[in-house]
Design a protein that fits this description.
Largest sheet: 5 strands, mixed
Radius of gyration: 14 Å
CATH topology: Hypothetical upf0131 protein ytfp
CATH architecture: Roll
CATH class: Alpha Beta
Protein name: Gamma-glutamylcyclotransferase family protein
Strand order of the largest sheet: 2-5-1-7-6
Length: 146
């Protein structure tokens, strides 16, 4: 599968009510629903979070977020806008802040859905695992602020 037309899983500033949601998603989505990314951990960043695929087989709480489906005719534009926002150039590019990967996320009823997820690029993920601050429960919107 080439990923064309996959929904997007967002877990930080693009979630409903967060600072980038209306700025980047207004008019570009047809549906938004709660979802969870299993097998990943969420780390605090400089004003935004990073999802890091867990190297542990157990113990990763997963990442809480939302599954977004592009509005009819808006997919290509949405993909371009999100790639730019997430500083994603191309697979494995050394300037990537995030990698865009197709992963299974879970709806509240447990149904798995393949979606694009922006996860920390390998160098960033390594630094976060070694020295980063994990967000308990994997929920950016519920993190302690201050």
């Amino acid at each position: 599968m080439n990923g064309q037309g996959l929904p997007f899983f967002v877990y930080g500033t693009l979630r409903p009510g967060e600072c980038n949601h209306d700025l980047f998603l207004h008019g570009r989505t047809a549906a938004e629903e709660p979802a969870r990314l299993p097998g990943a951990e969420l780390y605090d960043g400089p004003g935004y979070p990073y999802a890091v695929e867990s190297s542990r087989t157990r113990g990763a709480s997963g990442v809480v977020g939302d599954l977004l489906t592009a509005a009819p005719g808006a997919y290509a534009d949405l993909l371009t806008v999100l790639d730019r926002l997430e500083e994603y150039v191309s697979p494995g590019h050394p300037r990537n802040l995030y990698e865009r990967v197709a992963l299974d996320v879970l709806r509240p009823d447990g149904t798995a859905v393949r979606a694009w997820v922006y996860v920390a690029a390998p160098d960033v993920a390594g630094r976060l695992r070694a020295h980063g601050t994990a967000i308990p429960g994997g929920d950016w919107c519920a993190r302690p602020v201050g």
